[in-house]
Amino acid sequence: MMRHALCLCAALAAACCPLPAAEAPAPYGPVPTEHQVRWQRLEWYAFMHFGINTYTGREWGYGNEDITLFNPTAFNADKVVKTLKKAGMPGFIYTAKHHDGWCAWPTKTTKHNISATPYKRGRGDLVREWATAAKKNDMLFGVYLSPWDRNAASYGKPEYQEMYMAQIRELLTNYGPIFEIWFDGAMGGDGWYGGAKEKRDIGNATTYYRYPEVVRMIRELQPRTIIWGASQYGDVHWGGSEKGHVPYPCHNVYRREDGTMVWNPLEGDTTINRAGWFWHEGQAPKTKSPAHLMQVYLDSVGRGANLILNIAPNKKGELDPTDVKALMQLGEARRKLLAKDRARGASAQASEVRGNDPQFGADKVTDGDIESYWCPNDGTTTGTLEITLRKPATFDIVRLREQIRLGQRVRRFEIDVWQDGAWKTLDAGGKSIGNQVMRRLPSPVTTDRVRVRITAADACPCISELSLLRMPAIPAWEADTRPTLSRAQWKSEAARALDGKPKTQWEGRKTPDSFTIDLGQEERFSAFSYTPRQDGKTAGMTDRYRLSVSADGKQWREVAQGEFGNLRANPVEQTIQLSEPVRARYVRFTAERCVEAGAPTVAEFNLHP
Ligand code: FUL
User: Fold this and answer.
1) Atom of ligand 1 minimally distant from the CA of 186
2) Which residue did the predictor score with more confidence, 574 or 169?
3) Whether the CB of 357 sits within 6 Å of ligand 1
4) Of 49, 64, 486, 606, whose Cβ has the fewest other Cβ atoms within 10 Å?
């Protein structure tokens, strides 16, 4: 009804009183620079930690490392860069110097650099190799340059600041365009410092590193470079955890330490491998699953931030194959997620259109053009946008974007879908949009009408896109090479949970229900893993469990109980560590509760030594 009324108003307005073109709204609050806008649209890129720590197994070098250890025998920047590109990343940032002070290029500022290593007989320059490979593959290249330097004797004194500025100058002068420069916030503390082996306190980072001056220098050398950190005198800042998830609501306008309000968006950072930022021996089982990484993507990019995802070369200089496999699966899932917008081309109506001017019409949110936007009149800070698809579609993510060139405005919105003859509000509303939000629905919805109600904004909302996306199935992650006990001698009524085929499953009769396994002999184990049903159904997925053990099959002792979280969104194998290793011949798994109704199921069950 409302839809028809809206159409009628618009039609009447257009027919009887053609209005002069309306003016675009004035920007609200701080707005991004052109290079910040460009950066925010990159969404994600790689981080690459590779240096002397790769050879010592440390995450933070002390500064006195034997740098002759650095000798990647199979390093091929082009190959690594191609891998990142294949995953869909538009660029990467390399740790040209980490806290240990070792420089991966032949800097004139310190001898503690790549020239003093056996790599290419002292003629190597990793920064050059990365920059060349990036250029060749049309990828963006950025550098991380740790302000904290645990090798430099001068660290903490004014001379160090000169050296540090000189390093920035070298990197921004000799290697072509640098799309982002990362100034780590970690600083001060103990280190080798030229042999002093002491703790140094630099006081205030802004004052000591002279960040406002550093920023001015960078702007002169490369005005398009995005500056990370630098006490917020730069362009973007840390998402607040190294897990990649950024807080929501997510605001681009930020109060700098000097009180100024600035446009300073967030970057969520994390590693693809739980072992750390640098490569570590035996790290393969610690690669994060693609489903987990997708959640990280939704919790960073899907909240309006960028994601920098670390993937670390090993001692030979090659990426770890397990990490690459996860990256490729994540890249593929992201590609599929973004490939089809079910709202594209849908007809759209709005509660109000700025000056009734079609250039601010509701259909701008479904035209696939990120620059055009719907907007009501000045002073209107709430409003409704309704879209009608040509035919019903199924989706589980609603994506919204504001035209950030005009500032961040929306403070609250709700999402409704038309179902069974009525509007139903989904548990997917939010409190910020900015560059984009991807709101995941509790379960997929099929409909041909979707409505977004903006219920609070600081100024008239300017919405550039409303998209309906569908999360693709993400393959179960089987690369976890954690050893399992052999199941060959096991006897159980739950044979289908022990057959190594995730597609078949044990099915109980009712909830709760249990199965017992006779291991054939006493075994020692410290963890078990459970794979939920893999047939796409959620009903009957066991999500609460108890695990009991027995020596004789009569006297039982409970060794674990709890919940398998996030199964609906992420039905992957979950490994539960027992509080201490157990010896037993009999094991009983009890399915205490299920997702939705239905008899409990278990697709696979394993024990780990
Ligand atoms: C942190 C550093 O201390 C870590 O080693 C890593 O480089 C990470 C990206 O930033 O502050």
Assistant:
1) 11
2) 169
3) no
4) 486
CA of 539 to the centre of ligand 1 (A): 42
**Segment 524-528 mean pLDDT:** 93
| Final residue before a domain boundary, out of 313, 339, 365 | 339
Tokens of 253: 């306008």
- Which atom of ligand 1 approaches the CA of 98 most closely? 7
d(CA 82, CA 94): 15
Instruction: Please choose from 53, 59, 184, 269 the residue to mutate so as to test ligand 1's pocket, defined by most ligand atoms within 8 A of CB.
Output: 184
Domain count, the chain: 3
Residues 188 and 268 in one domain: yes
Q: Is residue 10 part of a domain?
A: no
Answer whether 385's CB lies under 8 Å from 452's CB.
yes
First to last CA, the chain: 64
Give residue 184 CA to ligand 1 midpoint distance, Å. 7
Buried b (16+ CB within 10 A) or exposed e, 189-205: eebbbeeeeeebebeeb
Q: Does residue 354 sit in the same domain as residue 312?
A: no
> Is any ligand 1 atom within 6 A of the Cβ of residue 186?
yes
Residue with tokens 């790549």: 114
Q: Is the CB of residue 222 less than 8 Å from the CB of residue 178?
A: yes
What are the φ/ψ torsions at residue 107 (nearest 5 degrees)?
-70, 155
Is 50 near ligand 1, meaning CB less than 6 Å away? no
**Residue 96 in domain:** yes
- If asked whether residues 121 and 257 sit together in one domain, one would say yes
22 secondary structure, DSSP code: P
How long is the chain? Answer: 609
Say how far apart CA 267 and CA 39 lie, in whole Å: 10
pLDDT in the model for residue 5? 47
> Are residues 154 and 163 in contact, defined by beta-carbon separation less than 8 angstroms?
yes
CA–centroid distance, 220 to ligand 1, in Å, is 27
280 versus 379: which is more confidently predicted?
Answer: 379
In a domain, 252, yes or no: yes
Give per-residue pLDDT as tens, 116-169: 999 999 999 999 999 999 999 999 999 999 999 999 999 999 999 999 999 999
- Provide the pLDDT for residue 28: 98
Q: Which domain holds residue 128?
A: 34-339
269 in contact with ligand 1, CB cutoff 6 A: yes
Distance between CA 160 and CA 209 in Å, rounded? 9
Protein residue closest via CA to atom 6 of ligand 1: 277
> Within 10 Å of residue 503's Cβ, how many Cβ atoms?
11
286: domain CATH number is 3.20.20.80
Residues in contact with 134: Cβ distance below 8 Å, sequence separation at least 6, in sequence order: 81, 91, 92, 140, 141
* Whether 339 contacts 385, CB under 8 Å: no
Q: How far apart are CA 306 and CA 296, in angstroms?
A: 11
| CATH value at residue 534 | 2.60.120.260
Q: Does residue 158 share a domain with residue 56?
A: yes
Task: Please tell me the pTM assigned to this model.
Answer: 0.79
Q: What is the DSSP string of 25-77?
A: PPP-SS---HHHHHHHTT-EEEEE--STHHHHT-SS--S---GGG---TT--H
Cα–Cα distance for residue pair 250/97, rounded to 1 Å: 30
Q: Which atom of ligand 1 is nearest to the CA of 184?
A: 11
Both tokens assigned to 314? 């090993």
Q: Decide: 59 in ligand 1 pocket, CB within 6 A.
A: yes
Ligand 1 in contact with 184 (CB < 6 A)? yes
